[in-house]
Amino acid sequence: MKQVSQQDQQNRIYRAIEYMENHLQDSMVLEDLAVVAGFSPFYFHRIFTSWMEESPIQYLNRLRLERAVNLIEKNPMLNLTHIAGICGYSSVSVFSRSFKQKYGLSPRTYRNELTSHSADTTQPIVPVSMENMAAYQQGVEILEMPAFNVLAVPTMQGYQLDSICSAWETLFTWTQARQLWHADIWRLGISFDDPKITPLGKCRYYAACRIDKPVKAAGNLSIFTIPEGKYILCHFELTVDKIQAAYHWVFHKIMLDAQVQYRGGMVYERYLSPSETPANQPMRLTIAIPIEDLR
């Protein structure tokens, strides 16, 4: 096999992870993921495990279970059959068996528990306060959104501020050098994981921007598509430390009031304030969630 650089290995692994994330509801096996990465199944399994400290299938199973816990935690109106389906389980019984093996109790019991459990099930999750979040809300829209392409720099080191800032600096430098960055560019933050559910060191964040013309990515940048469909767009003005509470407000209040539910797919934040806004100052952002009518 031709020698592959570490950067190329990383890019191919991230490509496989993006595929997992975007097709979590679909059946997939090691060979499918190896094809996406462009490696033989044996070599892909070896380098993925070396980079991510989990085998590809272990990683996929963890993503599915954590997606399920997120849905149970954040949208109590979703029925378990629906959750099982959009998380890639062939039946509720298969889902329940996998869930209980990981968390020690069934999804239904988990939902009924007054106290949530953390990813290692040894510490309770303290619910995020939604008090006064209405004061930060600037409006809600439900729109049919067209698909669009984004250019992104991933960071897999958890939600560490230095890693996130480094990702944004890489994205800004790369796009500015190619005259892609402009004042009205869509700046997007894609946070895939809840640190109260996913171990912090495994949380994933993408610094991203919308691109409207053909671009060939290089280095650790990737290009993918935010799918078309119905989205609820929730507008806020708040400081960074209140973003997590805003998400809980959206799932537990706004979406229930609107009689809609999460349909699976990528959730993103669009930052509307100037990029130089200090972290301790309020900023305007939109949380966009793919939805369908409540079943």
Explain the overall architecture:
It is a single chain. The protein is built from nine helices and eleven strands. It has 295 residues and is an alpha+beta fold. The protein folds into two domains: 6-117, Homeodomain-like (Arc Repressor Mutant, subunit A); 136-293, Regulatory factor, effector binding domain (Multidrug-efflux Transporter 1 Regulator Bmrr, Chain A, Alpha-Beta Barrel), CATH 3.20.80. Helix content is 38%, strand content 22%.
Oligomeric assembly: single chain
Q: What structural class should be given to the helix and strand makeup?
A: alpha+beta
Q: Give Rg in angstroms.
A: 19 Å
- What would the average pLDDT be, to the nearest integer? 87
CATH architecture descriptor of the largest domain: Alpha-Beta Barrel
Low-confidence stretches: 114-127
CA-to-CA gap between the ends?
50 Å
CATH class of the largest domain: Alpha Beta
| H and E order | HHHHHHHEEEEHEEEEHEEE
Q: Portion of residues in helices?
A: 25-40%
- What does the overall shape look like? globular
Main sheet, how many strands, which sense, barrel?
A: 9 strands, antiparallel
CATH fold category name of the largest domain: Multidrug-efflux Transporter 1 Regulator Bmrr, Chain A
**Strand element count:** 11
Q: How many structural domains can be distinguished in the coordinates?
A: 2
Fourth-tier CATH superfamily name of the largest domain: Regulatory factor, effector binding domain
Percent of residues in beta strands? Answer: 15-25%
User: Number of helical segments?
Assistant: 9
